[in-house]
Design goal:
By secondary structure, this protein is of the alpha/beta class. The chain folds into 3 domains: 3-200, Alpha-D-Glucose-1,6-Bisphosphate, subunit A, domain 3 (Alpha-D-Glucose-1,6-Bisphosphate, Chain A, domain 3, 3-Layer(aba) Sandwich), CATH 3.40.120; 215-446, Alpha-D-Glucose-1,6-Bisphosphate, Chain A, domain 3 (3-Layer(aba) Sandwich); 448-557, Alpha-D-phosphohexomutase, C-terminal domain (TATA-Binding Protein, 2-Layer Sandwich), CATH 3.30.310. The protein has 18 helices and 21 strands. The chain has helices at residues 3-13, 18-26, 31-38, 62-77, 95-108, 122-131, 164-175, 188-193, 202-213, 236-246, 275-288, 319-337, 356-363, 374-386, 414-429, 435-446, 460-476, 538-557; strands at residues 49-52, 84-89, 112-115, 136-140, 149-156, 197-199, 225-229, 250-253, 292-296, 303-308, 314-317, 345-349, 366-370, 393-398, 402-404, 448-457, 481-482, 485-492, 506-510, 515-520, 526-535. The strands form 4 sheets. A 6-stranded mixed β-sheet has the order 1-5-4-2-3-6, with helices on both faces. It has a 6-stranded antiparallel β-sheet with strand order 16-21-20-19-18-17. A 5-stranded mixed β-sheet has the order 8-7-9-10-11, sandwiched between helices. Helix 10 links the parallel strand 7 and strand 8. The protein is globular and about 65 Å long.
Length: 558
């Protein structure tokens, strides 16, 4: 079918959401706008769907959500998994609508849908899947993306984002479906009355917070002074519940970012990795003068932090810095408390800091590295659990502000991370140190590891082809020197035998200990380049990363 005929089909059939009809009529005389919305189906990857909210096959709307859910229902009904699915959503536009539509499809297919009665974090959804014994889970969220996005994450019965194999089976089921004629639906109220759509009670969330609290080393946090922002997302309820139970009473919530708001008015890119997102909270710190500022992203699976810089201001802690800080803190406190298991295991990703390696060696911890994405860390927890060795897992982290110190969920958990950051801050404060002092002490001991990320955006169909061409060129024209430093080793995770699943990632190891990694994003039209260097000082390592960034920019613009 031509784009014009597909548009006419949607104009005739897409009548359930008035916003879509308005958008479709507006683009009738805009060929580029029509093409962008219909040139492909929104891809279903290991993280499910993610895209701009709007009309068309390449957008997040009730029809793409219904089709994905029908595919998931067909997959579940063909499996031996429980015929129940837990569903949650964050503060994004259309989130509640997409949840209800997914529940209607599941119910029509004989699958019971369990819905949280209000917006809740992604880790609370991961928890609910196992808590309720579900065969799958759905979280309607676009994580930290800008306000125009929404998404649809799918979880397996283990509470982890579905495996590559399961994602391929769900995608195969989706591919067989027409957007309109092949979708089974039942009325929402009818499904509720028939017990096919049910509400998750408050005890589930309360027990989730208790599971996080059970992981506390147990330091006194009563003197801690905290500024917190949920970035207009889902974190406020569980984080305040957690802090109350921990005894953190001096908490100031950033007022402009306290209430859920899918427009994210003070942080257009609601990512705690971004200084812009944290800026409103940082200004409040200048008045409140807390020991620690924490921010969680809209679905509360990532946590960012800022600490006093010793000069009257506040410095943001990077994801890698927080990862190694919490890793070291967990190791030293568990050894001191006598709770370190035999043969402990920590897990991080191939793009996260190399600094984790000497810390693991210091404490006798086995460090495993996975592909990018916390689902792969969750899989490692599952493997340990299957072997009857779940207690060996002590910590997992990724550079993109994701942390997890327990096996209560199978995804990164910012509620857990808030608990750990507060505990660590109190522990170091009792020793006359801030968290920045602690980070610098680690640098002094292990070397000044510095990491950076450069993202290059390629929008639309032409952008997709450009990204593919760049990756192909990098594979065919392998460099011997990057930024003046010889290349010792190149690893192609798509074609080399790495012991990991195949992935479109290239890694370059340089003679000076630096590392450069290139991968297309799985959720955004971007190629991400991860830079890593180690030196005798921050300035030395930063200079290497600046040269690597310049080389990466040349690659992307060649």
């Amino acid at each position: 079918m031509t784009y014009t005929s597909v548009l006419q089909l949607w104009l005739a059939r897409a009548v359930d959401d008035p916003d879509l009809a308005v958008e479709l009529h507006k683009i009738q005389n805009d060929p580029a706008g029509v093409e962008d919305r219909f040139y492909r189906d929104l891809a279903f990857g290991t993280g499910g769907l993610r895209g701009v909210i709007g009309a068309g096959t390449n957008r997040m709307n009730v029809y793409t959500v219904r089709r994905a859910t029908q595919g998931l229902a067909d997959y579940l009904n063909a499996s031996g998994l429980p015929k129940t699915v837990a569903i949650a959503h964050d503060s994004r536009h259309k989130g509640e609508l997409f949840c209800r539509e997914a529940a209607r499809v599941l119910a029509a297919n004989g699958i019971t849908a369990w819905l949280y009665p209000r917006l809740e974090p992604t880790p609370a959804l991961s928890w609910a899947v196992r808590y309720l014994g579900c065969g799958a889970g759905i979280c309607v969220t676009a994580s930290h993306n800008p306000a125009k996005y929404n998404g649809y994450k799918v979880y397996g019965a283990d509470g982890c984002q579905i495996t590559l194999e399961a994602a391929e089976k769900v995608q195969a089921a989706i591919n067989k479906l027409d957007y309109f004629d092949d979708i089974k639906l039942i009325g929402y109220d009818e499904a509720v009355a028939g017990g096919r759509i049910r509400t998750i009670d408050d005890k589930c969330l309360s027990d989730f917070v208790d599971a996080v609290l059970a992981l506390r080393p147990g330091n006194d946090v009563s003197k801690l002074k905290l500024v917190y922002t949920p970035l207009n997302g889902t974190g406020l309820e569980p984080v305040k519940m957690l802090l109350d139970r921990m005894g953190v009473t001096q908490v100031t919530v950033v007022p402009e970012q306290e209430k859920p708001d899918g427009d994210f008015p003070t942080c257009p890119y609601p990512n705690p990795e971004s200084r812009e997102a944290m800026e409103t909270g940082l200004r409040l710190c200048d008045t409140v003068h807390p020991d620690l500022m924490l921010g969680t992203d809209p679905d509360c699976d990532r946590m960012g932090a800022a600490v006093p810089d010793g000069q009257g201001g506040y410095r943001l802690i990077t994801g890698n810095e927080m990862g190694v800080l919490l890793f070291d803190y967990i190791c030293r406190t568990r050894i001191a408390n006598g709770t370190m298991p035999k043969n402990p295991v920590a897990v991080t990703t191939i793009v996260s800091t190399d600094m984790a390696t000497p810390i693991a060696q210091e404490y006798g911890v086995e460090l495993r590295r996975t592909l990018t994405g916390f689902k792969f860390i969750g899989e490692q927890i599952g493997l340990l659990e299957a072997a009857g060795e779940k207690e060996r897992y002590i910590f997992g982290f990724e550079e993109s502000y994701g942390y997890l110190s327990g096996a209560h969920v199978r995804d990164k958990d910012a509620v857990n991370a808030v608990m750990l950051a507060c505990e660590a801050a109190a522990w170091y404060a009792a020793r006359g140190m801030t968290l920045l002092d602690a980070v610098n002490a680690l640098y002094d001991k292990y070397g000044w590891y510095r990491n950076d990320l450069r993202s290059f955006t390629f929008e639309g169909e032409s952008g997709m082809h450009t990204m593919q061409a760049i990756m192909a060129r990098l594979r065919s024209d392998v460099p011997f020197v990057i930024a003046g430093h010889g290349v010792n080793r190149v690893v192609d995770y798509q074609n080399d035998d790495t012991g990991l699943p195949k992935a479109d990632v290239l890694e370059y190891r340089l003679e000076n200990g630096a590392k450069l990694m290139v991968r297309p994003s799985g959720t955004e039209p971007k190629i991400k380049v991860y830079l890593s260097a180690v030196g005798k000082s921050a300035a030395e390592a930063d200079a290497v990363n600046a040269a690597l960034a310049a080389a990466a920019a040349e690659w992307m613009n060649a």
